[in-house]
Specification:
The protein is of the alpha+beta class and about 120 residues long. Helices cover about 55% and strands about 15% of the residues. Helix 1 crosses helix 2. The chain is elongated. It starts with 7 loop residues before the first strand and ends in a 13-residue tail after the last helix.
């Protein structure tokens, strides 16, 4: 038996940040650009750019900037967001792991049409 979870941040019913945007920002940081990040994540440049712009609009802060060398970089706000999101995921994972034994003691349900032997 496994316990699964997904975490994302919402405001007024709109997603602000989650696993997908987390991966996109990390890919931008690794590739130093949106084109390489989009290619790495197998998404279109336009879709990636749309996610970045929507994220910036919803959180009210820039998450990427282009330097004089024309390379895209994460802003300090984006780095803080990534760090806090990672910490939140680790905290929730630790919470679940601490309670996993409560669920592993449950027996599998009997097969359909009969009692478990």
């Amino acid at each position: 038996m496994e316990i699964k979870f997904k975490i994302w941040l919402e405001k007024d019913g709109h997603a602000l940040f989650g696993e997908g945007r987390d991966r996109l920002l990390k890919a931008i940081d690794e590739c130093h650009g949106l084109y390489g990040a989009a290619k790495q994540l197998k998404m279109s440049y336009r879709a990636a750019w749309g996610k970045i712009k929507l994220t910036e609009e919803r959180i009210g802060k820039r998450v990427v900037e282009v330097g004089e060398d024309k390379k895209m970089r994460l802003t300090e706000d984006a780095r803080k967001l990534l760090a806090e999101f990672e910490k939140l995921e680790k905290d929730v994972d630790a919470f679940i792991e601490a309670r996993r034994s409560l669920f592993t003691e449950l027996k599998d349900p009997p097969p359909e049409g009969g009692e478990k032997k």
